[in-house]
Automatic annotation (TrEMBL):
GO MF annotations in UniProt: structural constituent of nuclear pore
Protein's organism: Parascaris univalens (Nematode worm)
Official protein name in the record: Nuclear pore complex protein
Known partners and oligomeric status: Part of the nuclear pore complex (NPC).
Record family assignment: Belongs to the nucleoporin Nup84/Nup107 family.
One GO term of the biological process aspect: protein import into nucleus
Amino acid sequence: YWLLERYIRLLISLKMFTMIPFYASKLPPETAEHIIINFMYEIEDEKIRLNVLAAAHSVGIDTTELCNKLFAHAIEVNDAADEGDKCDLKLISAWNWLKYPGKEALIEALFAANLILRRFFGVEKLKEAKLLFEQMEGGLCDVVEKFWSIEFIGTSLPRELADAIAENRSYQAYLVALDDFNSWFNHFKMSEPEVPRTPSKDLWIRMDIQQRAAFEVEQAKAAELCTRHRSAGDVLCETAIDSLIGILLFPGGWLKFTFLEQNITNEKVRERMEKLREIRQSYLAAVVGMLIVIYDQSQDSHGAVRLADLLADEKYEIAEALSRDQLRGFCRHLAVISGGMNKWT
């Protein structure tokens, strides 16, 4: 087979990709799979990907299984320890292979997306996490739920799949909340438009009618801009608070899952549980911190009291997710804000 392998390598070098599945299918299965996966992994252009998949399908290759193996290969070669941007982009690119087979790979695509998101959130690569979500056209969770309701009418989602949907939505909700907070904070840092001060009585007397009229128009415009600035700030503030509180009140708990006892002995399940616990602690602390910044800068003592009550409410188990030091620090800040003093001025 060495001559055929050399010919396939020549086709790869000439970028005659659609011919490769046919000739590779003449090789022993393991050799063919190795060649196909390695060359397809490097393809980035979507049109070429689809053409190669069509060529593979035409020679009897299971393209759904092939796409799953392509993603598994990407996970293997882009080890979690390697935090380079190139590896991140390759993982995201490889995930897109799971979109091509259609509904057959939807559920696998969801689990794969969560695997990548877990990695990204674990090392605070939120820009990359956003990029992955941008690949999920139409909302992956909604599509999976619709697919299940059609294919398995009257059947509830399996526990594992329901948890995967909740995990995916948890990540997305945090990214939305972070964007809302940043929008508010960027607006907050902007200087408020200045309204021209009314001239002194002597200066006003010396101004003619046109000068007075021009000043009044300028003053009115500035006052309108100032009002708009404050209104926009109020809206952004309210939106950010709603989004952040939404994380704390996330249905079932943000990234909080109760695993079945028989699964806890599974090493991979235990590792995932520990990773989710770490992410939950880190990002819930970030959410509480962002809310404290908003309440402090807006001098909202009532909001601070509500947040303190929420932290103390055992129903949501927020305090349980935080370390003692984090909780003590938050309580000190909230006590200051609710007492009407601004600690960070």
